[in-house]
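PROTEIN DESIGN WORKSHEET
SECTION A - STRUCTURE
LENGTH: 310
TOKENS:
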């Protein structure tokens, strides 16, 4: 299934230029996420620890054997560049979108066809290469109404004709909130978010609910390190900024001796929230103090104490 979102790079699933050109009709969250400045900050905050990106993972696949070879200095330099490029591809972020709106419109109402069959009839364009979200699927209901497919029908029919290994025809029990609560640990964050991304589109209600449950658990337990240098770190930071909950993240960055990232997070917060109650400063320390004294969601002392300890 060649979905609008399903490609090697998550951000490549949607055309950022198209987003910027259609700001009047696109949800605010999408517009902000695809701004060049926001993307650059999120990538910088994510980091690129190649050892973590390429670490062995239990995915039920056979691990490829290592290959050793002698190379020249020039060949080694080229291989290192390719290595970093592959890591950056793996770190491309899933897009942050608002929840999808209901779809489906009536094309025709024909009472003469009412009761013609005891089940709906679905007509599908199965042309290869058509984006799933744009694939033409229409439904003839039992009462004779002809309409375009709703989201549930669109997803199910696309998956029927163009199945994906990572996507089930049913909603796995993993994504029930009560089941998630039982398995949420730092070691499982990335696995859950990867499964979530493989199963649902980024604007699907269950995708958004699952991602937010994980992000809130990371924030409440201060387990930010678990998602650093993963493709899910940027969307999490965006979510925390959007909801004005960056205090714990700032303390983590400060205590990790990374004042530059902490200052960048505050800058991102200001871009997303449009909060002008504090001033950005060339000095990262002053920027953080300004934020702590004016916009910190919790006790400002947490950030100021962390700065004194750093």
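SECTION B - SEQUENCE
RESIDUE ASSIGNMENT:
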């Amino acid at each position: 299934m060649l979905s609008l979102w399903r490609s090697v790079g998550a951000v490549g699933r949607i055309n950022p230029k198209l987003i910027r050109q259609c700001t009047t009709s696109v949800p605010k969250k999408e517009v902000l996420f695809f701004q060049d400045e926001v993307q650059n900050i999120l990538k910088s905050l994510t980091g690129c620890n190649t050892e973590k990106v390429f670490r062995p993972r239990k995915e039920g696949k056979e691990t490829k054997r290592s290959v050793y070879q002698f190379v020249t200095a020039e060949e080694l330099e080229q291989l290192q560049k390719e290595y970093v490029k592959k890591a950056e591809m793996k770190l491309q972020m899933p897009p942050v979108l608002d929840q999808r709106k209901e779809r489906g419109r009536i094309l025709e109402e024909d009472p003469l066809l009412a009761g013609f069959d005891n089940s709906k009839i679905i007509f599908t364009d199965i042309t290869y290469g058509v984006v799933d979200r744009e694939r033409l699927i229409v439904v003839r209901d039992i009462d004779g109404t002809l309409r375009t497919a709703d989201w549930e029908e669109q997803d199910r029919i696309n998956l029927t004709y163009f199945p994906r290994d990572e996507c089930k025809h049913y909603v796995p029990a993993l994504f029930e909130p009560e089941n998630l609560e039982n398995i949420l640990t730092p070691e499982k964050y990335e696995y859950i978010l990867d499964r979530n991304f493989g199963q649902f589109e980024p604007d699907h209600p269950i995708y958004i609910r699952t991602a937010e449950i994980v992000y809130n658990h990371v924030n409440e337990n201060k387990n930010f390190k678990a998602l650093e240098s993963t493709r899910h770190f940027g969307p999490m930071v965006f979510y925390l900024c959007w909801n004005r909950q960056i205090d714990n993240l700032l303390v983590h960055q400060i205590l990790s001796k990374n004042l530059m990232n902490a200052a960048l997070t505050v800058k991102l917060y200001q871009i997303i929230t449009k909060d002008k109650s504090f001033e950005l400063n060339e000095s990262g320390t002053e920027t953080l103090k300004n934020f702590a004294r004016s916009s910190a969601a919790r006790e400002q002392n947490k950030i100021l104490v962390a700065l004194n300890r750093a």
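SECTION C - NOTES
The CA atoms of residues 41 and 264 lie 7 Å apart.
The first helix runs from residue 16 to 21.
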